[in-house]
Amino acid sequence: MDLRDFYLLAALIACLRLDSAIAQELIYTIREELPENVPIGNIPKDLNISHINAATGTSASLVYRLVSKAGDAPLVKVSSSTGEIFTTSNRIDREKLCAGASYAEENECFFELEVVILPNDFFRLIKIKIIVKDTNDNAPMFPSPVINISIPENTLINSRFPIPSATDPDTGFNGVQHYELLNGQSVFGLDIVETPEGEKWPQLIVQQNLDREQKDTYVMKIKVEDGGTPQKSSTAILQVTVSDVNDNRPVFKEGQVEVHIPENAPVGTSVIQLHATDADIGSNAEIRYIFGAQVAPATKRLFALNNTTGLITVQRSLDREETAIHKVTVLASDGSSTPARATVTINVTDVNDNPPNIDLRYIISPINGTVYLSEKDPVNTKIALITVSDKDTDVNGKVICFIEREVPFHLKAVYDNQYLLETSSLLDYEGTKEFSFKIVASDSGKPSLNQTALVRVKLEDENDNPPIFNQPVIELSVSENNRRGLYLTTISATDEDSGKNADIVYQLGPNASFFDLDRKTGVLTASRVFDREEQERFIFTVTARDNGTPPLQSQAAVIVTVLDENDNSPKFTHNHFQFFVSENLPKYSTVGVITVTDADAGENKAVTLSILNDNDNFVLDPYSGVIKSNVSFDREQQSSYTFDVKATDGGQPPRSSTAKVTINVMDVNDNSPVVISPPSNTSFKLVPLSAIPGSVVAEVFAVDVDTGMNAELKYTIVSGNNKGLFRIDPVTGNITLEEKPAPTDVGLHRLVVNISDLGYPKSLHTLVLVFLYVNDTAGNASYIYDLIRRTMETPLDRNIGDSSQPYQNEDYLTIMIAIIAGAMVVIVVIFVTVLVRCRHASRFKAAQRSKQGAEWMSPNQENKQNKKKKRKKRKSPKSSLLNFVTIEESKPDDAVHEPINGTISLPAELEEQSIGRFDWGPAPPTTFKPNSPDLAKHYKSASPQPAFHLKPDTPVSVKKHHVIQELPLDNTFVGGCDTLSKRSSTSSDHFSASECSSQGGFKTKGPLHTRQVNEHFYWSISTAYKCPVNQY
């Protein structure tokens, strides 16, 4: 090296020396996906920058400006006054920012930016490097939602089969961490193999012997999870097909192969020839080469694999700058389920095929690609930051930068690849008004490649005269309802400056939204249609501003007066008037007032009203708007009236508008409730003795054609509930039991229910009769209806039980005859009973103890045998329609009264007669109340056992016999039939007709007492058609 070369080298080093006073570097670390306005750093605080000028000792206002390329969407923003760095609305996505880079934990993803500090006296260039850390924002995914694996049936236990790995764009612990096999059915397991590169490869383990003939397909799920927080995961269906045996798999000579190929290799260039061998013969030795599932789609597009020969060739142009390393997994399969695997690493080597890149970012914002400088700007004014780069590597990527020709500008190196474009001397507008030069970047490759960037700089003159208006106040007038774009006037001003400093632009001030002003000519036009009723006068300002730097301006006031026209129709205060009046209001009463206005003045404001389509139901005053009725209102006939009203003003031509009027007739309480249920005052409901308190036994329902509170109904029991057995819901009308019915409650109950509305000022009401029949059954409905008809003679304020004596006296003669016949029957029964008890005394005592406390029981087997014997010995007389059976007698406490106990058999023709319609009710039938005014009222025994009741109108043959008896207070019915009733084996109607032979009777427990002769008689009739009875 001679002396001349040494000096050149020293000069070059001096030119490239970095100025540490103005070039500094900061490094920040952030997480990706941060929201907007998250603070990143503070430049003056982190660099300890002082705002004090060291030369003068005065404080200065520093301006921090981000150097950005035109059109770029910045990822961060810098506060110009404080130097704080914040995130922007542009999302920082690490996977997108560093796409194509290696995702290893140790590789950093970052981006760089530059910030300059102005003015020139404090100028600094800050290079900021922001490292983006990964967050877990991507879930690991399998290459396919369904993974198919074929496994031979002779596979040994613990054999392993590779499963395509899942990929996760996240890095480190946020990447793939764990695999899990779901529903492995104890046949398969899962193992994870970690490669030297840190990849986790799942392998399927066979845990049981496979038999394709038994099961050839297994469907499972495989789950992959990452290690992020929150943890993300995905699943894929793993379908294993059991195939026949091929027990030798191909083997590659080399499992790991690395090759190099230049990036300018032409299409068709061979990359590598892979070769695998198979110990099998025939079709099992035919090897087919395919890419593995982990090979990226982009790699498959660049390289082709011959399925037969295993040759990998280039099928598209390569670009090292896009991807430098390609990892290719090649599988060699002979048709078996376990292919051989080889990994080929293809390194794309660099060639000098990329020219340098010049990134020109202006510090002074250009206008249409030209930088404008003032001739008074000082030396070293910063114009732009230039960054040069080259995608090539090594020597091919080393770049130098310079200006092509002599100009009053130079490049100042701040980093090894960044330069500042500055002014090198004072500028003279009168000498040269415009500069255009090229910046050249050249690399060191052979041959060398270069790139140029054109810079245009224009100088600007100074401005010192503001525009002047000819008139400081401009007054105008215009009629309303004008057309848009109507010319109003031309506003002009003058400027004593020259060039662009004398170019004046006009601008409207605030409150001028109804006007347009041509910025260059000053022509003022109307941009909207004026409406005097909305605004009568407009006052605003006009600004004249020149194009100097800084611009100078002046203002003038403009007053525009709007002239009136007749352009408003009458306007109702409501589009739909609604008035409310009470029904029965007399004619010619005032029902409402219509209000209408008109924004116009004078005659245009005078409004008259008229009705359009009312049919003379109402009269409208045309000036006051008062509406009066011409009809009497009845809401039940018509609840509302609707018509249209027209308002016409006095303008020429006249304007009009219409509105709808609705007269709503309010309800007056003039209708009584109408009963819907019960359907009549003679219907009844059955109340079983087993009914529980609170159960609904009947319901009353009524309606009222009035509305509102006039239609709200209240239900009350006003009579017939003196025992408080029932309760009615005042709202729903449901009648419920207050307490469980007792045997003394058996019979017919008449409730007088008052249904009243809540009308004001006077409430209207309706009465309804509700008959409730308390008993287990309603066997003889026609008699119940007869009792209901009789109760109609009883006043409503009296209980029907108080008037039962007249109904009993009508049958007095019949009862006396029945008592005489019953006495004869008792004598015969006593005689038979003595004989039977003497023979079965011990058996009778045992049976008596076992029957204590029981209400019903069937005879034992001995009784059944005795029945059969008595059937043979005894024959029913054909001439008699009634057979007397089972009569018992006990000693009474009172010798005056004899207790009579017995049953009467009925012929078959009476058994099948209709019982009449009655309501079975929701619960099982119970006994009737004793004081109810029907046939059941004669049964006043305290026993819970029911009685069958003959219809009172049933014709009785002269040959039929009736026994009238008074039943004891405590008695037990003993049935002998296998089936007491065809309707139900659990029926409590123990006296219903039956097709089987039956027996019945009453057995006393202890001393029995008869009623006084003057007390009511009670009937109890049981059926025992051809039914022999055993006497205990």
Characterization of the model:
With 1032 residues, this protein is mostly beta strands. The protein has seven domains: 21-133, Cadherins (Immunoglobulin-like), CATH 2.60.40; 146-243, Sandwich (Immunoglobulin-like), CATH 2.60.40; 251-349, Sandwich (Immunoglobulin-like), CATH 2.60.40; 357-460, Sandwich (Immunoglobulin-like); 468-563, Sandwich (Immunoglobulin-like), CATH 2.60.40.60; 571-666, Cadherins (Immunoglobulin-like, Sandwich); 674-792, Immunoglobulin-like (Sandwich), CATH 2.60.40. The protein is built from ten helices and 62 strands. It has a four-stranded mixed beta sheet with strand order 1-7-6-3. A four-stranded mixed beta sheet has the order 8-14-13-10, with no helix packed on it. It has a four-stranded mixed beta sheet with strand order 16-23-22-19, with no helix packed on it. The longest helix has 28 residues, at 812-839. The chain is flat, with a radius of gyration of 58 Å. The model is unreliable at 1-18, 803-811 and 850-1032 (pLDDT under 50).
Task: Report the average pLDDT across residues.
Answer: 76
Strand order of the largest sheet: 1-7-6-3
Number of helices: 10
Please tell me what the overall shape is.
flat
CATH homologous superfamily classification of the largest domain: Cadherins
The CATH class of the largest domain: Mainly Beta
CATH architecture of the largest domain: Sandwich
> What is the number of E strands?
62
Taking the sheet with the most strands, its summary is: 4 strands, mixed
CATH topology tier name of the largest domain: Immunoglobulin-like
Low-confidence stretches: 1-18, 803-811, 850-1032
Proportion in helices: under 10%
Rounded to the nearest angstrom, the distance between the terminal CA atoms is 152 Å
Strand content: 25-35%
Helix/strand/pairing category: mainly beta
Tally of discrete structural domains: 7
